[in-house]
Amino acid sequence: MVRLSARFLILAASALGLQPSMAAAADDTQIARGEYLVTIGGCNDCHTPGYFFGKPDTSRFLGGSDVGFEIQGQGVFVGCNITPDKETGIGSWTMEQIVTALQTGQRPDGRVLAPIMPWHAFAQLTEEDVTSIAAFLQSLKPVPNQVPGPFKPGRRSTFMFRILPPGQTAATAPN
Fold first, then answer.
1. CA dist list (Å): 173 to 70, 117, 150, 168, 170
2. CB of 128 within 8 A of CB of 47?
3. CB of 42 within 8 A of CB of 144?
4. What is the mean pLDDT of residues 47-67?
5. How far apart are CA 116 and CA 133, in angstroms?
6. Domain ranges of the chain
7. pLDDT at residue 19 in the model
8. Is the dihedral of CA 103, 104, 105, 109 positive or negative?
9. What's the CA gap between 161 and 16, in Å, rounded?
10. Which of 34, 36, 61, 166 is the least buried, fewest Cβ under 10 Å from its Cβ?
């Protein structure tokens, strides 16, 4: 009965021209599915501070990394804050904008996601799955955490992993 009442309120809000948030419209099953997909997708790895140091800061879950990935010739990219914080995360993104970013690599501001982000893999998910991920992300506690970067090639100001082309070694890579 509670689920029927929530759906009635959403429909009533729509009839009045109000836009209910998709997170509010998402049901518990959809959010649980999104949490499952975020977990097996390893989103925590690149988007939670402390993960790469063996001590993930669970109080800032998905609040942005403290490690950058250097891609030769492109710069250093730090896993961004993907919580619904409006100032430092994706809190101002709509459900549709999150889905678009996951499936096309296109951010709402027109920029392309960092090359390290595996959006090509997420593009293979079903619409239901990618929408569930977006609903889960919107359901999280906002974490205020502005990550640094991105940094242009040659500029270093964060702990980073270096990604090298096949056959190249750290000893021969330009600094």
1. 12, 23, 20, 7, 5
2. no
3. no
4. 94
5. 19
6. 29-163
7. 46
8. negative
9. 51
10. 166
Are the CB atoms for 47 and 64 separated by under 8 Å?
Answer: yes
Q: Is the pLDDT of residue 107 over 80?
A: yes
Amino acid, single-letter form, for residue 89: G
Strand partners, 161: 69
| C-beta of residue 75 within 8 angstroms of C-beta of residue 155 | yes
Looking at per-residue pLDDT, the higher value among 46 and 167 belongs to 46
Long-range CB contacts (< 8 A, 24+ apart) of 153-158? 153/72, 153/73, 153/74, 153/75, 155/75, 155/76, 156/70, 156/76, 158/66, 158/67, 158/68, 158/76, 158/78
Helices (H) and strands (E) in the chain, counts: 7, 3
Tell me the pLDDT band of 56, cut-offs 50, 70 and 90.
Answer: very high
Q: Which amino acid is at 51?
A: Y
Backbone angles phi, psi at 69, to 5 degrees: -110, 120
Tokens of 162: 């270096």
Q: What is the chain's mean pLDDT, rounded?
A: 84
Percent residues over pLDDT 90 in the chain: 61
